[in-house]
Amino acid sequence: MGKGRLEAFSDGVIAIIITIMVLELKVPHDTALAALGPLAPVLLSYVLSFVYVGIYWNNHHHMLAITHRVSGTVLWANLHLLFWLSLFPFTTAWMGENHLAQAPTAVYGFVLLMAAVAYWILEQVLIAVAGPDSALRGAIGYDWKGKISPLLYLGGIALTFWRPWAAQLFYALAALLWLVPDRRIEKLAAH
After folding, report:
1. What's the whole-number mean pLDDT along residues 99-106?
2. TM segments (predicted)?
């Protein structure tokens, strides 16, 4: 089975996720810059989530660029990833509207963790379809970022019960790790 429909569907869902997130931003009724102050948690939550959605879109694109076949299992694994990504607008809004309170910040971290797990599952299913000697398997290598990120999410979730703002630092650190796509996959995709 070709991968074109999977890519097109995923791109569409991700575009809708970003659209929903931006529509959740409420415009202040005051024209003074000071009116943005109370919206800072909402805006910061949006920026972090926008970066995460961008990271997933970018890495998903690179991963599929070196993938030649998909199966029904790949389609379901991809839907699993899209499910967790589709919860970003809800958890982002809940966390931002409640000024980074404990429960919303912990749930946000849980959704980040589950999206990472879903991405890993998709990666493994794609490798299984292509075989152990696939370009994707070779490009992933040790995948240190994929191993560290869940630990940062778990650490962030644990920190929410002590200092929710500190959890945000863990979530932001995990995002920073992924801002630069894996060069090995980019090189393979270029060929």
Report:
1. 95
2. 6-25, 32-55, 75-95, 107-131, 151-180
Q: Are 126 and 71 in contact (CB under 8 A)?
A: no
State the pLDDT at residue 70.
95
Q: Count of alpha carbons within 13 Å of 26, Cβ hemisphere only? A: 12
Distance CA 31, CA 47 (A): 22
d(C-alpha 49, C-alpha 51), whole Å: 5
In the chain, where are the structural domains located? 4-190
Q: Please tell me the predicted confidence (pLDDT) of residue 188.
A: 67
Query: b or e along 61-72 (b: 16 or more beta carbons within 10 Å of the residue's beta carbon)?
Result: bbbbbbbeebee
What is this structure's pTM?
Answer: 0.93
Identify whether the C-beta of residue 62 lies closer than 8 Å to the C-beta of residue 23: no
Is 90 exceeded by the pLDDT of residue 168? yes
Sequence-distant (6+) residues with CB within 8 A of 103 are 160
Measured distance CA(179)–CA(159) in Å, rounded: 23
